[in-house]
């Protein structure tokens, strides 16, 4: 099966593709990828790199396109004016939200013309909503971005990364005024949104608001996201409503997440690497998504171009072609047949990679973490928007709250302290004991191997 070549003279629209039963492959995660590369600041996660480092944004778009994406989202995540001036962020004042959104549109359109890709203008949840502002005020924030998307003739619109279905409905209503197709994804799990609205009911509200494509993105791993989309599908069926389904999950394993998703995990955002899904995990995700009836399949935070390529390769039989990036990647590792070492050549087969249980190489680390679960949501003082940077005093209060919460979890009084090393021992002793036994047997018997998960 040869990689696709050439560019159609006229591109079919998103609904034309989905209505025809075609598989649409989204792109991956921009803010996480560009933070690792030194172009995005963790914390605000805002996309001023579209202005400051357009070459970095352009290159990542190009890599996703080459990997198989046929939708390129404008790099406008968290590009609302209120987010760009929240908690000391300088972007609104020094660059402006208009320039960031304008630059992001131009870059995405430029790269999309290099292949059969559509451009989606994207908006996301706002500090205004979390601060309790009224519907008209929040919709006015969305409207500013929408005007730029219309001016730049994007192909369709995506409202993504919403924790509250109420705000997502407001976003869909605003975007629908453009006359363009609207997709919407919530960053929720099977428990529903932050106000407890179940996924099925969320989907119903979003379709009634005017969305043609509904689903989830971010916050949870592929398996959890598919469970959530399944609940959405069931809700739509029960309400006798129709919509195309969409999934763009994290590229991190998060079975231990709470309702807030991976941002509740203690590893977020700087120690998530041990949780990264493999390309073979993504093969499984793509197949399960397809079998569930999802036809818009992509990724969010952590999804690199090679993950998107895995989606395209898994679904190549249905699509009829491979992405250009497959020129350097064989089917299920068959390029390893060219390796010098014979034991590596022996891995050039699907059965090997499909059944491998990868080790982390971290013998004293737990397999799961305990989410923070602070439980704050819309209207809580700690989520209120403020233009000024977070003060040292505000940080000190948060540090103390975190310490107190940790002590409570381990049954300590407020005046007691716990040494970090002792805490690790408390958390990991059962694992350490099992691992010690494993290593002792290995030392006395070098040929000893264990198939048991410690």
Q: What's the quick description here?
A:
By secondary structure, the chain is α/β, with parallel strands linked by helices. It has helices at about 15-20, 30-35, 50, 55-65, 90-95, 95-110, 125-130, 135-150, 165-175, 200-210, 220-240, 280-290, 305-315, 315-320, 340-345, 350-355, 390-410, 420-445, and strands spanning about 25, 70-75, 120-125, 155-160, 180-185, 215, 245-250, 295. It has 2 domains: about 15-340, Alpha-Beta Barrel (TIM Barrel); about 390-420.
Topology:
Blueprint: H1 14-19, E1 24-25, H2 30-36, H3 49-52, H4 54-67, E2 71-73, H5 91-94, H6 97-112, E3 118-123, H7 127-130, H8 135-151, E4 156-162, H9 165-176, E5 182-186, H10 199-209, E6 213-217, H11 222-238, E7 244-248, H12 279-292, E8 296-297, H13 305-314, H14 316-319, H15 342-345, H16 350-355, H17 392-409, H18 420-444
Keywords: Metal-binding, Methyltransferase, Transferase, Zinc
Cofactor: Zn(2+)
Pathway: Amino-acid biosynthesis; L-methionine biosynthesis via de novo pathway; L-methionine from L-homocysteine (BhmT route): step 1/1
């Amino acid at each position: 099966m040869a990689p696709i070549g050439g560019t159609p003279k006229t591109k079919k629209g998103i609904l034309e593709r989905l209505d025809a039963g075609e598989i649409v492959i989204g792109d991956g995660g921009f803010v996480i990828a560009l933070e690792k590369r030194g172009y995005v600041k963790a914390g605000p996660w805002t996309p001023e790199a579209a202005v400051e480092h357009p070459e970095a944004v352009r290159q990542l778009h190009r890599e996703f396109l080459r990997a198989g994406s046929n939708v390129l989202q404008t790099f406008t995540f968290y590009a609302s004016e209120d987010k760009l001036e929240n908690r000391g962020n300088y972007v609104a004042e020094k660059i402006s939200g208009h320039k960031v959104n304008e630059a992001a549109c131009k870059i995405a359109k430029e790269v999309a013309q290099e292949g059969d890709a559509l451009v989606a203008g994207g908006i996301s949840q706002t500090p205004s909503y979390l601060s309790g502002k009224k519907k008209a005020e929040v919709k006015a924030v969305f409207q500013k971005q929408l005007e730029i998307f219309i001016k730049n003739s994007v192909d369709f619109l995506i409202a993504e990364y919403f924790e509250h279905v109420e705000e997502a409905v407001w976003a869909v209503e605003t975007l629908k005024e453009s006359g363009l197709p609207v997709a919407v994804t919530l960053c929720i799990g099977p428990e529903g949104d932050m106000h407890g609205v179940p996924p099925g009911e969320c989907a119903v509200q979003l379709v009634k608001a005017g969305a043609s494509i509904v689903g989830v993105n971010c916050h949870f791993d592929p398996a959890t996201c598919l469970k959530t989309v399944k609940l959405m599908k069931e809700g739509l069926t029960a309400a006798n409503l129709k919509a195309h389904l969409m999934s763009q999950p994290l590229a991190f394993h998060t079975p231990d997440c709470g309702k807030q998703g991976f941002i509740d995990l203690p590893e977020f955002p700087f120690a998530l690497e041990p949780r990264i899904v493999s390309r073979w995990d993504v093969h499984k995700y793509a197949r399960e998504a397809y079998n569930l009836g999802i036809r818009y399949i992509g990724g969010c935070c952590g999804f690199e171009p090679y993950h998107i390529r895995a989606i395209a390769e898994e679904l190549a039989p249905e699509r009829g072609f491979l992405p250009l990036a497959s020129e350097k990647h064989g089917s299920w590792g068959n390029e390893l047949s060219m390796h010098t070492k014979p034991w590596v050549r022996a891995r050039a087969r699907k059965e090997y990679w499909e059944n491998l249980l990868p080790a982390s190489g971290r013998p004293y680390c737990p397999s799961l973490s305990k989410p923070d679960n602070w439980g704050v949501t819309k209207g809580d003082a700690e989520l209120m928007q403020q233009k000024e940077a977070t003060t040292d005093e505000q940080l000190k209060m948060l540090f103390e709250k975190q310490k107190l919460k940790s002590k409570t979890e381990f049954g300590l009084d407020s005046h007691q302290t716990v040494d970090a090393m002792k805490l690790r021992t408390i958390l990991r002793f059962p694992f350490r004991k099992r691992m010690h036994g494993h290593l002792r047997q290995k030392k006395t018997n070098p040929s000893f191997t264990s198939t048991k998960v410690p």
